[in-house]
Design brief:
single chain, 399 residues, alpha/beta, Nucleotidyltransferase, domain 5, 2 domains, eight-stranded mixed β-sheet, six-stranded mixed β-sheet, 14 strands, globular
Length: 399
């Protein structure tokens, strides 16, 4: 059975096509720069044959139409007819307390996802755009929603409740939720296998470091704590998001600058983080290059990011009472040896010791690799994430 997965961002659409239940990935790719101009598709077939094609995609409909055309193309495609695809699984970032497991999409589900959009304004609207595009382009196909937040339903109340009036939780469901759930779920499963233990025997800290950054404490095989919170704005410093700050700061600046709520929300989500500190950079590769050229603010943004992640590691080890392994994943976690080195700096007293040669070798995101020293009581892994496989498995299970 062929299952297609879609991960729609505001300016990109990631996709893959699987044969289930054999978990064979026929192809995968991304349509980038959707809605912003200069759009192109990168398409990879099973044999890693790569195609790049430039085609303007002013909206998600045209991006998904481009993906469909590639899937069924005689030369570049992997299917003869669109009817071979039985279902489409979508990553949806925020399900609130409404969704604790994957669901088949219908009008009621769409309405509830819309209600959660205020909690993830950078993500849920784009996820919905992909769902609606498939409805128009493939009207008879089954669609499933796989929620990032669902992985974190195992967090106990003393972890997810904030120090705020409790009636806010009762009335508005204000609590910690958690994000990047498909990624954390996948790499925690793989780390458990690499450790040769059963899930309930394992404590892990999984670090998803990309444009968005999130850290999860996995205790006894299930999510126990997570750096992001009510929205994906809490936690570590990210590409454009501020992460943890004194909540009095926005109130103070709103008064000084006479800013409205929407203006401040835009600053905290889109103009802060590494971009805010460096003044010009989001991409970590550009930050590292600028550091080499002597850019002090680029260096500062790098040091702030790594220090904040390192603090979370220490806090989660204390919270769980110990850890068996640290896992790096995500675009930066999988590819930047310097970030991994800086994050693990000064953690030897906690039993975390890197093998520097292995750390340098672990680039490219192609394979799982242990990068800790043989003398390290705590293992350190680089595990390329496979969110698409998790989405495909959950979609197949629903069918």
């Amino acid at each position: 059975m062929k299952v297609m997965t879609l991960n729609c961002g505001s300016s990109s659409v990631k996709y893959a096509l699987f044969d289930m239940p054999d978990r064979i990935k026929f192809c995968h790719g991304i349509v980038d720069r959707v809605t912003v101009g200069g759009s192109f598709i990168e398409h990879f077939k099973l044999d890693n044959e790569k195609y790049i094609h430039y085609d303007e995609c002013p909206n998600h409909d045209t991006a998904i139409r481009l993906i469909i055309d590639f899937l069924a193309d005689m030369e570049r495609g992997v299917i003869k007819d669109l009817s071979e695809i039985r279902a489409v699984g979508h990553r949806v970032v925020h399900g609130g307390e409404k969704f604790t497991k994957p669901v088949t999409i219908d009008d009621e589900v769409i309405k509830k996802i819309e209600e959660c959009s205020v909690l993830a304004p950078l993500h849920n609207p784009a996820n919905l755009a992909g769902i609606r595009a498939v409805m128009r382009l493939m009207p008879n196909i089954t669609q499933a929603a796989i929620f990032d937040t669902a992985f974190f339903t195992t967090m106990p109340p003393h972890v997810f409740i904030y120090g705020l009036p409790y009636e806010w939780y009762e009335k508005y469901q204000i609590r910690k939720y958690g994000f990047h759930g498909t990624s954390h779920r996948y790499v925690s499963r793989r780390a458990t296998v690499l450790l040769g233990k059963k899930p309930h025997e394992v404590n892990l800290i999984t670090l998803h470091i990309g444009n968005g950054v999130s850290i999860t404490a996995v205790k006894g095989g299930v999510a126990y704590d997570h750096s992001m919170g009510f929205t994906p704005l809490e936690g570590a410093v990210m590409g454009t998001r501020c992460g943890d700050i004194d909540p009095g700061i926005p109130l103070y600046v709103m008064g000084k600058e006479r800013l409205g709520c929407q203006e401040m929300e835009d600053i905290l989500n889109r103009k802060s983080g590494l971009l805010g500190i460096s003044g010009k950079y989001i991409d970590r590769r550009e930050i590292l290059q600028a550091m080499k050229a002597g850019d002090e603010r680029a260096k500062l943004s790098f040091e702030v990011e790594c220090y904040r992640i390192r603090k979370y590691i220490g806090a989660y080890i204390a919270g769980m009472g110990g850890v068996d392994a640290i896992v790096f994943t995500g675009g930066v976690g999988e590819n930047s040896a310097l970030h991994r080195l800086k994050v693990c700096d000064c953690l030897e007293f906690l039993g975390i010791k890197l093998d520097h040669k292995k750390n340098k070798q672990a680039v490219g995101g192609q394979s799982e690799m242990e990068i800790s020293s043989p003398l390290s009581p705590v293992k350190v892994f680089v595990i390329p994430t496979d969110e698409e496989l998790v989405i495909a498995e959950d979609t197949f299970a629903l069918l």
